[in-house]
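Predict the 3D structure for this chain.
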Amino acid sequence: MNDQGMTMKRIKLGEICEVVSGSTPKTSVAEYWDGDINWITPAELTDETYIIEESQRKITQSAVQKTGLRSFPKGTVILSSRAPIGKVAIAGKEMYCNQGFKNLICSDRIDNKYLYWYLKGHTEYLNSLGRGATFKELSKSIVENIEILLPDLDEQIHCSNILKKCWDLISVQKKQIELYDKLIKSRFVEMFGVPTKNEKGFELLTVGDVVDFQGGAQPDKKFFEYEKTADNIRLIQIRDYKTDAYITYIPKSMAKRFCEVDDIMIGRYGPPIFQILKGIEGSYNVALMKAIPKKGNKEFIRHFLQQDCLLEYLEGLSQRTAGQAGIDMPMLKAYPLPYPPIDMQEMFAAFAKEVDILKSTAHQSLKKLQTLQKSLMQQYFT
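Done. Predicted structure below.
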């Protein structure tokens, strides 16, 4: 019995689920592809995926008949078993998948939504079970032998319903934040037009005329530290703008590039390239650069650099180069920048600041809901 008073017992997944794998029809056989039958890959699952009903790629009836593919039914819990391990979803209809999954067809002893949340709450544990020299993978036998805590069916359904309601609230907050970002973008275009067109006839400069870019730096990894001290400083990496799970420090004596919370930071490499970031103070690494305004309002410049037309331009350039996708700096600096009067820039900045206050409130609510969800998972599943 856990601290919620639920009667719990440990049981192996292989005793309550049938574990099935997928496979890939030969990509060289044209008749197997571009049909109307769903066939999914791990890359299609995100942290937001709950019910999945459509796949990006489709296979044909010929692929099913000639290769012996096995489908899994609606309601199956889909678990990615490699690249990456631990992504999870529920099949909204019958479908097929590639070999990157170990899928769980639930018996009547376990609620599929309960299993979804249970697996979602144990991503780190699932990754620890991965085996393999080239890349880590969960085998069918490993998945079958995973033990989970299983309450009575009514209690499972109760737990999954509560977690789904919490997830719905989290989704609402995330959508609200997205709407705030869209509002600022719309206001920018309303005031200044599309940068590539310069419909309002502003003075035409280039990005390099208005902005300096300062690349990051870092010492060898052997100097990395993972506890805060009086003698070190946070080393900021691109991933740190999404999670605090990998906080790293370096000696202050080795820090060469510094940023403040409100500086315009840019992710140099991708995918996706050219992420515009802010919110952390410290020393930034080689995957980041800082945009330093030479003239004009910082918020105007920040949001100009976030315009879709500029991102599409840079992505198009990066796709023509070999190796890791990055920013073509000479072409970025040469990009045209219609430069509006400073009073218009400041008017926009005031608007953006007001929206940012609302966004900050939404972010705080989101963080509280995510903490609540984590707490509920700990209560239900440990």
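The chain has a mean pLDDT of 93.
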